[in-house]
């Protein structure tokens, strides 16, 4: 695949400082004008029904499009990256709100930076909850702590809203919890890319 083979581009970012550079890179090397999620000329096809729709990150909107296209609604999408987000998508695909919690890597970094004696560790499911050394104790706290956070918040969402939600987990980190969460029905790593594709298709003739 050569640069000259690429005829279209779509950008989704929650880092405004990066957008200028990405847009210029696409213009210079691909010779195309990118679609940018969140800009007024891009129709994402999702109605945002929260107090201030402009506050919703592009990544969450793209996930909403990709998940609703594949699964319908209502949905709760759990995506763990820099932040761990829980997004509620209604029966007709509306973005109705959600929860934003610190991401697992952010918590790990803060733990290491704030306590000099604590090492950097890999995220993995420990063999037992009670750690027999510092690394095992940290792995248990991170892994089972985040399972507790995810399942605890999902339990509260499902208790607050009586609709029959399908709960979808996405993002590379959430997949580490596969089989451990009692509430996530399905893991799908392609929600974001499918959402971008769907938005591009919606706007390609505009």
Automatic annotation (TrEMBL):
Please give the pathway this protein is involved in.
Cofactor biosynthesis; coenzyme A biosynthesis; CoA from (R)-pantothenate: step 1/5
Q: Which top EC class is named for this enzyme in its record?
A: transferase
Q: Please list the reactions this protein catalyses.
A: (R)-pantothenate + ATP = (R)-4'-phosphopantothenate + ADP + H(+)
Which cofactor names does the annotation list?
A: NH4(+); K(+)
Q: State the CDD domains in the record.
A: ASKHA_NBD_PanK-III
Extract the Gene3D superfamilies matched here.
Answer: 3.30.420.40
* Main location, first listed in the record: cytoplasm
A biological process (GO) of this protein is: coenzyme A biosynthetic process
Swiss-Prot/TrEMBL keywords: ATP-binding, Coenzyme A biosynthesis, Cytoplasm, Kinase, Nucleotide-binding, Potassium, Transferase
Q: Which GO terms describe its molecular function?
A: ATP binding; pantothenate kinase activity
**Enzyme Commission no:** 2.7.1.33
Tell me the compartments it is located in.
Cytoplasm
| A GO term from the CC aspect | cytoplasm
Q: Which NCBIfam families match?
A: baf (TIGR00671)
**What's the family?**
Belongs to the type III pantothenate kinase family.
Q: How does it assemble?
A: Homodimer.
This chain's protein is named Type III pantothenate kinase
